[in-house]
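pinging the channel bc i need a second pair of eyes. not urgent but kinda urgent?? the chain im working w is below, pasted from the shared doc
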Amino acid sequence: MGLAKELRSHWARHLAVIAGYMLIRTLFHPFTDGHMSLYAGLRLGALLLLPYRYWPAVVACDIFCLAQTTIECAGQLGTHWAMWNMLPGSITAQPIAWWCRERMGLFPNKRQVNFMALFVAIAGVSATWTLFNCITMLSATDPTQPLKLSATLVAAAFTGQYMGMLATIPWALMARVEWESKLPVRQRWQRISHHVFAADTLIMLAGTAIFLFLLSRNNHNDVRHIALRVVFVPMVWLLVKQDWRAVAVSGTPCILFLGALLDSIPNPTVAQAEGFIALCLTGLFALGTRITSQQQQKEHERRQAKRAILLAQQSMQLNETRMRKTAQALELAGSVLHLSHHQLLTRFRNMLPANEAMRYDRQATATQSQVSGLADSMHPSAWRQRGLPAALHETIARVLAEAGVAYRCDIKGATLSDLSPSMHTAIYRQACESVTYVNMQMVCSSVRVRLRVGITRQVHWAMLCVDGTVEPTHINDAVYDIGEREFLASKLGAYGLNLDAMRNHAYLFNGLIHERMTHKGMRISCLFVDEPMRHVQRPIVPTPANPWIA
C-alpha cells in the first residue's frame, strides 16, 4: 500500500528517475565492453545516492534492460540461464547498499563522504555480482560453447566491475556534495571549474591522451605495460595539488584510455593489468581522502579561530558599551551630588563661617571634577557627544596638557563614519595605549597622533601613527616622576599595555603594529582592517577526525 500510494502521489518523479537512468545508461554504452562495465557504477551509484522510495524505479530499469538479452538468448542458453539472467543486479546489491548507508555511515553529513563505507560497498557489490554472474554462466546449456570457469575469468569479472564503479561513482558523489552545498550558484561553478577545468588538469589529461593514443598504435606488450604505469603520473600530480576529486577527474579518462589498450577477451595479462589499475586507484583515492580530511580539519580550525576573533571583537564592543553607560551614570551622579551639596550649603550658609562655607564649596567642586575625570577616563564625554574625532582632538589633548606635554592630532582620508563602531573603539583605545607607551618609554615633550582612513577593494582600513618627540629644551620636570606617567595612563583610561599586548589587540582587526626609533624619539604605527561584525552562529560540534571521511 505504501509503494502504491507513493507511485500515485509522485509518479512524475519516478518517471524522471527512470528517464535519467536510461539516458545515462545510453551514454555509457559506447564505453562499456567485455572487461569493464560502467553500468555497474550506474546501478550502485543510484542505490547509494537516491532515496529508498526510488529503488523500485532502478529495479524496473534493470529488468527492462535485461529482458531484451534474455528473450533473444533464452532459446539457446536454456530456461535456467534465463531465470538467473533476469535477476537484476540492483536487487542483490540493495542489502549491501543499505548496510553501508545506514550502519557504516556512508554520508556523515551533507558535505562529506565516508570512503571506507564506499570501498566496502564497491568491493562487496562487485563480489556479489561476480558470484551471480558465475552462477548464471554455469547455468547455460549451450552445447556448442561449453564454458569453463577459471580464476582469470572470475578476477577479470570482479576487477572490471570494480573499475567501472571507481570511474563513475566519485562523479556522482561530487555532484551530490555540490547539490547539498549552501554556497551561491556562482561560487559552486567556480569550485567545480577549479577541480574539473583547471589549467593543469586539462594539460595533464590532454598530454596523457596523446601519449596513450601514440602507444595504442604499437601492439608490443612491453610498450603497453609502460603505458599502464605512466598513466597514473597525472593522477598523482593532480592529487598532490588538490584532493580526492583530482583522482576522480583524472582517473575516469585514464580508465577509459586504458580500456582501449586492453583486450576485450579476459586473459591473465588483462586480469593482472586490471588488478594493478584497481589497486592503484584505490590507494590514490585513500590518499586523496586523507589529504581532503586534513584540509577540512585545517579549515575547521581556521573557522574556529575566526569565530574566536569575532567573539573577542563582540566582547570588546560590549565592554565599551558598558563603560559608556557607566560613565554616563557617573556624570549624572556627580551632577546630582554637586546639586545636593550646593542646596545643603545654601540652607546652612547663614549658620557657618564664611571661610568654612567656601571650603565646603571647593570640596564639592573638586568632588564633581574628580567624578567627571573618572567618567572621562572610562568613556570621554567628547566621544559620546561629538564622535571619535572630538575624543582624539580634545580628550587626549586635555590629559597631555595637564602633564605639560604638547599635543597635535591630524585626521585625513575618508570619513570616520564609514568605519564600524568596533573600529572606532579599537582606534581610540590604541591611540591611548600608544600615547601611554611612548611616555612610559621616554620623557616626551610633544606627542603627535596621525590617523588616515581609506578603502581598498571595498575594504576599509585605518592607519594610526603616534610620534613621541624629545626636545631637551622643553622637557617638563613634572613628567620625570614615574607616578605622573602612571597617572597619565589612568586619566586616558589605558591599561599600560606593552608592545606584545598591543599587537594582540590589533590582531583582532587583522592589524599590525610596528615600533621604530626616530632621530627625535619613537614612532608606533598601527594598521587596522575593518571587517563588519557578523552574527556569530552557534558552534557546530565537529565530527571526530577520521582519515576516511572527506
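so Residues 387-532 form a domain with the Heat Shock Protein 90 fold (CATH 3.30.565.10). and The first helix runs from residue 2 to 9. — does that match what u expected or am i reading it wrong
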